[in-house]
Design goal:
- The chain has 200 residues and is mostly helical.
- The chain is built from seven helices and no strands.
- It has one domain.
- Helix 1 runs antiparallel to helix 3, helix 5 packs antiparallel against helix 6 and helix 5 crosses helix 7.
- The radius of gyration is 17 Å and the shape is globular.
- The chain starts with a helix and ends with a helix.
C-alpha cells in the first residue's frame, strides 16, 4: 500500500506545480503590458490591474494549495513524519489564502500569508533531502540556498539586475522546480517498489 500512496503523492506534487507554471506563463502573456522584471507575480492576481485574468491566476494558486494539502495526507502515510507533513500543510494553506485574498483585497493579509507560505515551503523543501536518495538529495539543499540568497538580496534592495519581479521569481521558482522533481522521484520510486515486489 505504501507504493500506492507514494505514487499518488508524487502525481499530486507534479500536477500542482505544472498547472501553476503553465497558468502563470499564460497570464503573463495575456496581461497587457505586464513586466516580468518589474512587477510582482501577485500582480497577475490583482483584480484592479489584471481584470478578469486575475481569476485564472488566483484559481490556479488555490488549486495548487488544495492539491498540496491532499498530497500531504499521502506524504504522511509514506514517510510518517509529522514535522514534514505539517510544514507542507501550513505552506499550502497559506497558498490557498494568497489566492483567495489578492493584493487589492488586502495587501497586509496577502503579504503575511505569502511570506509565511514561502518560509514554510522553503523549510519543507530543505527537509525533503532526508527522503531522497543521493545525489538527488543535494538538489533541495541547493535550491533552498538559491531561495535564501534571493530573499537576502531582495531585502537588501540588490536585485542582481533582474528587477523586483525577477528576484521574486528566484525566491519562488526553486520550490516549484523541486516540487516537479520530487513528484517525479516519488512516482519513480513507487514504480521501483512495485517492480521489486513483483519480482519477489
Amino acid at each position: 500500500m505504501n507504493y500506492d500512496s507514494k505514487r499518488i503523492a508524487g502525481l499530486l506534487f507534479f500536477i500542482a506545480s505544472v498547472q501553476f507554471v503553465l497558468v502563470a506563463i499564460t497570464c503573463e502573456a495575456l496581461y497587457p503590458g505586464y513586466s516580468v522584471g518589474q512587477q510582482f507575480m501577485s500582480d497577475l492576481g490583482n483584480w484592479s490591474l489584471a481584470g478578469n485574468y486575475a481569476a485564472i491566476y488566483n484559481m490556479s494558486i488555490v488549486f495548487a494549495g488544495v492539491i498540496g494539502i491532499v498530497s500531504a495526507y499521502f506524504i504522511q502515510r509514506v514517510f510518517r513524519n509529522r514535522l514534514f507533513t505539517s510544514l507542507l500543510v501550513v505552506g499550502d494553506v497559506c497558498y490557498v489564502m494568497v489566492g483567495v485574498v489578492s493584493m487589492d483585497v488586502s495587501l497586509p493579509v496577502h503579504g503575511v500569508f505569502g511570506l509565511v507560505g514561502l518560509v514554510f515551503g522553503l523549510a519543507a523543501m530543505i527537509m525533503s533531502y532526508r527522503f531522497v536518495k543521493s545525489p538527488l538529495s543535494y538538489a533541495p539543499l541547493i535550491l533552498g540556498g538559491v531561495t535564501i540568497l534571493a530573499i537576502v538580496f531582495q531585502a537588501s534592495g540588490f536585485y542582481l539586475g533582474l528587477g523586483l519581479g525577477g528576484i521574486e521569481r528566484l525566491e519562488m521558482y526553486p520550490s516549484l522546480l523541486w516540487s516537479l522533481g520530487f513528484g517525479a522521484y516519488l512516482v519513480g520510486e513507487s514504480g521501483s517498489t512495485l517492480s521489486t515486489s513483483v519480482r519477489a
